[in-house]
Amino acid sequence: MRDAPLDDDDLSAAFRVGYDVSQNRLLVAVEIIDDSIVIPDQPSVDWTHVDGCELYLDVTHGQGSGVQLARWGAVMSVQGDAREIRYGVESSVRPRRRVYEWWVDVSTLGPGLQLEPGVDIGFDVAVEDRDADNSFTWTSWGPRTQKLEGNRRLGDWTYEFERALTTSGDPA
């Protein structure tokens, strides 16, 4: 983090994690409150000059290289051990609000990996906030920066069980 947010209107964020067992996908939605949205029409060469969102995943828990998926303004970036990863992200911007909706094919994170009870994935989300006053904030839910450079920098997302839902969306 370079510049601390002034208040919750300057920058506040939340994320939700879901899954789709039928498509073996991890789903992550990130909602950001941001009073000064900076997403230019043209791609920026410097990720610190735009608003963005990053997703970190690691099935080896620091024994190998994890994956960083990022959307900085109009630019997509994939870092780490991501040669075969299948993913997507949609973003939307409204006044004072940005939303990123990610999906990741879990089977491309590790050989034969399936969403089943006990699956544990190193996980974190980070957001970038460039403001019109030229201030910049990078913040994540987990500790430290350089998320791909060692263990203990990511949290864990664990798939415990599948719960059937009725058509109303209530647990069966």
Description:
With 172 residues, this protein is an all-beta fold. It has one domain (12-158): Immunoglobulin-like (Sandwich). 0% of the residues lie in helices and 43% in strands. Strands 3, 4, 5, 8, 9 and 10 form a 6-stranded antiparallel β-sheet that branches. It has a 4-stranded antiparallel β-sheet with strand order 1-2-7-6, with no helix packed on it. The radius of gyration is 17 Å and the shape is globular. The chain starts with 11 loop residues before the first strand and ends in a 14-residue tail after the last strand.
Number of domains: 1
Proportion of strand residues: 35-45%
Q: How many beta-strand segments? A: 10
Question: What's the CATH topology label?
Answer: Immunoglobulin-like
- Envelope shape: globular
Helix content: under 10%
N-to-C span: 43 Å
Gyration radius, to the nearest Å? 17 Å
One letter per element, helices H and strands E, the order comes to EEEEEEEEEE
Indicate the structural class.
mainly beta
CATH class: Mainly Beta
CATH architectural label: Sandwich
Strand and helix map with partners:
Layout (H helix, E strand, L loop, with lengths): L11 E9 L4 E9 L18 E7 L8 E6 L2 E6 L6 E8 L2 E9 L14 E11 L5 E5 L14 E4 L14
Antiparallel strand pairs: 1-2, 2-7, 3-4, 3-8, 4-5, 6-7, 8-9, 8-10
